[in-house]
Amino acid sequence: MSDPTNDIYDPAFVADLFDRCSSSYRRWSAISSFGFIALWRRQCVARLDAPQDAQPVVVDLMAGTGEVWPYLLRRFPKLDRVTALDISHRMHLEAVDRLHGPYATKITHIEADALKTDLPANYADLLVSTFGLKTFNADQQAVLARQIARILKPGGSFALIEASDPKGWALRPIYRIYLDKMLPMVERYFLRGANDFSMIGTYTRNFGNSTQTCQTRPTDALL
Ligand SMILES: C[S@@+](CC[C@H](N)C(=O)[O-])C[C@H]1O[C@@H](n2cnc3c(N)ncnc32)[C@H](O)[C@@H]1O
Q1: Do residues 128 and 58 touch, judged by C-beta distance below 8 A?
Q2: What pLDDT, on a 0 to 100 scale, did the predictor assign at position 1?
Q3: Ligand 1 closest atom vs CA 114
């Protein structure tokens, strides 16, 4: 489970961090990614296989403010429900604030730690998670992978997307300067000295890429 000597991976620390970010999260993620984040969320949903059930149950892990739901609802207009799981109370509140019309009845909110969730086994036809992996260390990513395998129905489909640290990419130095230097400066200036969104630099650097999550074997035990 989480490494107690490295508390940026303590779920309580992460929940507090996102509680503090919640009110600006939507705008900040759009601006800091130059709008690309919307495209990436749509691409993630597009990677899901067509479900066997005409009215699929979808789980959104680390759902945040629900930014991926419009893409899910557009692609699967008959979906039965989206179960949105997030550990941050305030991210849920922001999401609820924004829900409207028929949309709202489709979303079930669960405030819980994805590593420990007791969502039933074989619950979901589809599972998605957008930008929710980097705040897990390697051991936690293995637990998460096991949770995903447990929650999905046999034959279910999942898609995960995360910002990585593109080692070997020619433009990586510029990318790192942007994440490690420019974003913290902009955040300090516009958000009155805050240093919360800037954690993305540390988290992406430590995360590396999705290899760890992908390599988890179905036989690895749930912690
Ligand atoms: C970067 S946000 C991504 C939100 C949203 N999926 C999006 O596309 O913008 C990461 C989210 O993961 C949630 N999170 C982090 N650790 C978690 C955990 N252990 N269990 C559940 N949610 C967690 C945070 O509260 C936060 O809302």
Answers
A1: yes
A2: 45
A3: 20
Which residue's CA is the nearest one to ligand 1's atom 12? 62
pTM: 0.92
Considering the domain 11-220, what is its CATH architecture?
3-Layer(aba) Sandwich (3.40)
The verdict on the CB of residue 133 being under 6 Å from ligand 1 is no
Q: Among the atoms of ligand 1, which is closest to the Cα of residue 60?
A: 6
**Cβ(162) – ligand 1 distance below 6 Å:** no
pLDDT single digits (tens) 195-220: 788 899 999 999 998 887 777 765 55
Where along the chain do its domains lie?
11-220
